[in-house]
Amino acid sequence: MSKKNKVEQSPRREFIFQKKNYLFMFIGVACIALGFILMSGGGSDDPNVFNPEIYNFRRIRLAPTLVLIGLGIEVYAILLNPHKKKD
């Protein structure tokens, strides 16, 4: 009888990522998407006309910074251990 009870009891399966991980992943993806959206545009319909708008602060500094911050948040979300207990 004791062998049968041991066989029937299997360890409970848990997911690696928890709600907190997925929350940070969503924030990171949203930050990356916002960065790419801010990078878009600024082109000219006529290829003979130069539009200096492609070199403004938003497309050169802000958007790539947001993408890099989003990637950093993604790395943090993957490495975050939600099972860690505070003592």
TrEMBL record:
Keywords: Membrane, Transmembrane, Transmembrane helix
Superkingdom to which the source organism belongs: Bacteria
Transmembrane segments: 21-42, 62-80
A Pfam entry, by short name: DUF3098
Protein name, UniProt field: DUF3098 domain-containing protein
Species for this entry: Maribacter litopenaei
Lineage: Bacteria, Pseudomonadati, Bacteroidota, Flavobacteriia, Flavobacteriales
